[in-house]
Amino acid sequence: MNDLIITQAVKEDFPAILDIQRKAFLEVARTFHLQSMPQIEQTLESLTAEFNNCTILKASLANRIVGSVRAYNHDDTCYISRLVVLPEYQNRGIGKALMKEIENQFKNIVNRYELFTGSRDQRNQYLYNRLGYKPFKTEYLNNEITFVFMEKSAQ
């Protein structure tokens, strides 16, 4: 992935990022037989509002956006969310590279990183474990969804 470029997203990138997000989370919804997910339903207006309060990175290959991640800090914690990679580009190290860069963006201003994923999503948990994240709580949402919250020290 020598030609992978990770940079700050700009508003003009949002339609492509939303498209990637929908495609990535449609795969998750299909895998776990879910009717829908908030990540699939997010609007351009909602993402634009989010932009004012968080850092959004994009990963590009050959001038095509193939992935994205978001984060914001609050009370010495960097909250990471919506790590997405186009399905056809997954398992190539793009998600790992995005995670490393978002951590790097916040390393001097937070003490810890936090994220969450679905309890049944072993693939995501495996990636986050490999990156040093450890589960610290679970949260039951409904009969179909339980979240695993994971953390990692920024030191």
Structure in words:
The chain contains five helices and seven strands. With 155 residues, the protein is of the alpha+beta class. The protein has a single domain, classed as Gcn5-related N-acetyltransferase (GNAT) (Aminopeptidase, 3-Layer(aba) Sandwich). A seven-stranded mixed sheet has the order 1-2-3-4-5-7-6. The chain is globular and about 40 Å long. The mean pLDDT is 87.
List the helices and strands and how they pair.
Blueprint: E1 5-8, H1 14-31, H2 38-41, H3 44-51, E2 55-61, E3 64-74, E4 77-85, H4 94-106, E5 112-118, H5 122-130, E6 134-140, E7 146-153
Parallel strand pairs: 4-5
Antiparallel strand pairs: 1-2, 2-3, 3-4, 5-7, 6-7
Record keyword descriptors for this entry.
globular; alpha+beta; Aminopeptidase; 155 residues; 7-stranded mixed β-sheet
In a few lines, what is going on in this structure?
By secondary structure, the chain is an alpha+beta fold.
* Percent in helix: 25-40%
Succession of helices and strands:
EHHHEEEHEHEE
Per DSSP, the total helix count is 5
Across the major sheet, the strand order is: 1-2-3-4-5-7-6
> What is the C-alpha radius of gyration, as a whole number of Å?
15 Å
CATH topology: Aminopeptidase
Superfamily (CATH H level) name:
Gcn5-related N-acetyltransferase (GNAT)
Which architecture per CATH?
3-Layer(aba) Sandwich
Q: What best-fitting shape do the alpha-carbon axes yield?
A: globular
